[in-house]
């Protein structure tokens, strides 16, 4: 199923009935809407937020739409901002998959059009049913790629190649995404071919993006662009971790592991860019193989660890900026907006508390690692 197929059905419904029309799934998430001449408060909210509010959902369900086998007229409710409308259920094999909503304030849409409207709705129900089965199958196969043994991975690669647009040997990379459930739903519905979208829990998703034969990454750029726009348009937190490129679906777990580390780093700085890439993590890649306990035992033991975790924030900040500047006193003093003499005094105090010598490359490395990784131990 493609968004274009659903859009065409919504346009057909609006044209048939001569009225504004939207299509929502059975959980009231917006799937598509026709060009509209008039929109009430509820539909405007639905289009902007991609989902009707719980109060509105309960109100409509109270009018029997979930069990309806034919179009149902629902009255207006000025308190909720609801205009009178016609609900056409989209069913398949007697199961509800969605609803067409058509604004009809004066109930002027004749019932003689209902049979044709139901044929359009039945086509939508079939498409939504097929999409649901496809999504579940994809989720099972991706789970095997990420956690299965060698035999399971080979099987999942073959099956997923047949089910989707991805070829077995195509290079791919993973994107790990964290954000509100409805925002993830929006992203999943608006992505193009070349991207697999799989939910990994209420507030997490995984995108598998194909890299074309020329090595260009238009699919990755499309995913990142969409997620960035959603974050900016709706002023809500949405974080992404971009994993490394791998040679094919059989190596997907490696990209997923890197994407999760990148997402973990991104979530420590929710106000920064929406995307953190594995390729840019530098020493933070150690987080893929070192647990907090490993870090505590190997890097945060002794005086250095106590200084970094429990020390004066002014001194730890000074040490971090000094080491980030590769030991350049002038650069560090300027970044801290202090005199060099003040910097020297602070660094002497750092050496005393951390029991190290900042002229020693090994000591500087240990301190720099501890300062860089501190947030992932506490």
Give the secondary structure arrangement, pairings included.
Elements (H helix, E strand, L loop, with lengths): L2 H15 L3 E5 L4 E4 L7 H9 L4 H8 L10 E3 L10 E8 L2 E9 L10 H34 L2 H14 L8 E7 L2 H10 L4 E5 L4 E7 L7 H17 L4 E4 L9 H16 L7 E3 L14 H7 L3 H9 L2 H12 L4 H8 L3 H15 L6 H13 L5
Parallel strand pairs: 9-10
Antiparallel strand pairs: 1-2, 1-5, 3-4, 4-5, 6-8, 6-9, 7-8
Helix pairs in contact: 1-4, 4-5, 11-12, 11-13, 11-14, 12-13
Please tell me about this protein's structure.
The protein is α+β, with helices and mostly antiparallel strands and about 375 residues long. It has 3 domains: about 5-130, Beta-Lactamase (2-Layer Sandwich); about 170-285, Reverse transcriptase/Diguanylate cyclase domain (Alpha-Beta Plaits, 2-Layer Sandwich), CATH 3.30.70; about 290-375, Arc Repressor Mutant, subunit A (Orthogonal Bundle). The protein is about 50% helix and about 15% strand. It has 14 helices and 10 strands. The chain has a 5-stranded antiparallel beta sheet, with helices on both faces. The chain has a 5-stranded mixed beta sheet with strand order 7-8-6-9-10, sandwiched between helices. Strand 7 and strand 8 (about 205-210) form a beta hairpin. Helix 11 packs across helix 12 and helix 12 crosses helix 13 (about 340-355). The longest helix has about 35 residues, at about 115-145. It is elongated, with a radius of gyration of 27 Å.
